[in-house]
## 1
Amino acid sequence: MAYRKTPAEISRLEAARDHLVVRATEVVAEVGWAQASVTAVADAAGIAAGSVYQHFPSKAALAVEVFRRAAGREVEVLGEVLHGPGDPVGRLARGTEVFARRALENRGLAYALLAAPAEPAVGAERLDFRRRYRALFAAVVREGIAAGALPPQNAEITAAALTGAIGEVLVDPLAAPDENATEALLADLTGTALRCAGAPPAT
Amino acid sequence: MAYRKTPAEISRLEAARDHLVVRATEVVAEVGWAQASVTAVADAAGIAAGSVYQHFPSKAALAVEVFRRAAGREVEVLGEVLHGPGDPVGRLARGTEVFARRALENRGLAYALLAAPAEPAVGAERLDFRRRYRALFAAVVREGIAAGALPPQNAEITAAALTGAIGEVLVDPLAAPDENATEALLADLTGTALRCAGAPPAT
DNA sequence: GGAAAGTCTGAATGATGGTTCACTTCTTTC
DNA sequence: GAAAGAAGTGAACCATCATTCAGACTTTCC
């Protein structure tokens, strides 16, 4: 044996992989999936196109990793708010607001995650993550029903509706942002989300 | 001059174009946009690939026409229900139901129109049609507010939420239909839609 | 230092699929 | 029926990328 990966070398490779994913995410956020060619991504990461294949078996695998990391962060944040302290209705409102605010603060990425045309592998991943959003919302809705704060309803359907509603409401603002209207938009959106779940109007 | 298009010839050409669009729509409904290659579509229409270009300058133009026709029908039907007779809340419920029912009856096409990955030109068209759905819903919501049947709210936001909610709720059933659960699904969906707009729960 | 085992490079390769075009077939008009 | 003008054909063309690979360069370890 004349070569074994030293710890330093291993972490160097991991860092390189990481850097590639980070830069690829930036490229996707800027130009969308369709324009994020292997060459463009490799250039952004400062490596040759062929080197991408040292870290990922295919472009699709890299794209999936980019999606998973970015979407995973959002699921995590949303989950923390929805499972956090407070009454279910308040958490639902806060979760909606936090989700929307984060999307508006990182529009390119949010659009890529939510709506931008993507290759099939990413599309499948998107479906999976939407299911996770739904599961998070459904849990809170069920809590709300159990606590008597929300009327009886099919929590799964409501959760799907919330996911779709929030996404659709954000599409236009993500494309053509109006900084001044952000707070009003968030207020209207959370209000609509609460109505959607059947929360009684705020006094 | 030795040749001028006779009326019969003109209508034959129009019919051929029409036939191409119809068959292309079927192909898209069956296999999705990505798999609907020019060759596949031409084969389905019984013509050569090159002949497609007698009717459309590009594949994208054909795809847009397919989308417009199919989506246009849905907008028309929805518009008739939403602008039809009855109180605004009832029309909203009925519109939601009709839209969902039609989608479930023609799942492949509905999926292609609502969610399936598509080339940019079709994506742009999709955004446009979503805007039309929103406008239709927004008008009814405004009517409901004016009539005192719905609470004050930003009708545009609610309309976007309705569009997104209905679409998202349908995605799973479109992919994995459960014939037995259709009526329950429709009831839950219309219920959620009404809550979304703030209609008081049915007694 | 040097051999072994990697890593990195970037031009060549290959697959895909839209588009073109020389040619054939059909319609019109006289 | 024959010339002129279209429409229809489908194999060839071409552009676009993802992917590969032979060679250059690095790191490890004796």
## 2
Amino acid sequence: MPELRADARRNRDELLDVARQVIREEGVDASLRDIARRAGVGIGTLYRHFPTREALLGAIIGDGVRRLSARAADLSATRAPGEALEEWLTDVARRIGTYRGLPGTMLELVWDLEAGDKDLRVTCGDMMDAGRRLLARAQADHAVRPDVTFDDVFIAVAAISGIAHKSGPDPAARVLAVYLDGLRSAGATRS
Amino acid sequence: MPELRADARRNRDELLDVARQVIREEGVDASLRDIARRAGVGIGTLYRHFPTREALLGAIIGDGVRRLSARAADLSATRAPGEALEEWLTDVARRIGTYRGLPGTMLELVWDLEAGDKDLRVTCGDMMDAGRRLLARAQADHAVRPDVTFDDVFIAVAAISGIAHKSGPDPAARVLAVYLDGLRSAGATRS
DNA sequence: AGAATATGCGGAGCGGTGCTCCGTATGCAT
DNA sequence: ATGCATACGGAGCACCGCTCCGCATATTCT
């Protein structure tokens, strides 16, 4: 990293600030031109700092994602396995649900391992590994049915968290609660 | 309905045919210009037949939605309450998941009762009423926890069905199965 | 201090989008 | 065959994502 010039640093920060707000309100498909405009910079400047939409998104959520990795370790050390997983998933849902449209992006990220931004995937990789350990621990403790994979669980939480911006946070929380109950159930008990 | 002119009728049908295919592949945000082009028709013609995107969407899925209403009545008459509901929800998920992006549209439809196309809402209204009855019956039979509303359940199924186009149909089905297990569980058993 | 250089900036420009509007063509009834 | 209602097509407007390059300015060197 060859040290940013002072004005560049300022612009980058302002851009990130504005983008966070705009994307929260308008969604991941928000107009980049508009973000640049509101930040008081040219469109070219935005694209130089963040060459792709995913790069911008990655810069925006990077912090939160890292926080989630840390949170997983913390919960793992201080809570019962099942409780730790549930608490963490609830956190994940809350964080992903913050930015409109982000759930869809996360869904694609999990499945289509080739597409999307490298950095974003690497950052998220750490978090997903942390979650994977949490699930394994919960399953070993028989707190969670054994017939689910972490990818499935993560996908589910991402999809459910998308409800928040379309139907409000309360419905999203209620749906997640039901899903978590399903996770706790024995599973494969279909007659 | 003042009887369409012959060419108008042809164009409408062709438009609907093409739109169905394109929207299945590209999603509800597909280019309308492109649809018109592929149907061999001017963009103006498309907009005259379907003044809004929702109008087109409504015309596309209207049939399937009505089929779901009928299916609900059928299941209610031939299956046990719990079974009927689950079968129906699975059907709903399969149908909604057919068109990429439709789950999101349905989510908005349920919550934001003011927005969206009138016709679409009316058509869906019948289907939702049918589903509501199915849920009530299942709850009366203690096959489904009493602390969920139909809106919550429908929202959940819509959100989960969105997984299909992002991560494949199998993950979507597995997630739905877990949610349905949660629906069957007693509920409100959180320590 | 001033000059030289490297770095970052802005926005014109391209091809696309949604959507409107209206002159023109055509099916249909007479 | 004529006349009219109906339907058609696409130009036009404002916006979008994204690229490219001449110009301004922060920084470094003398």
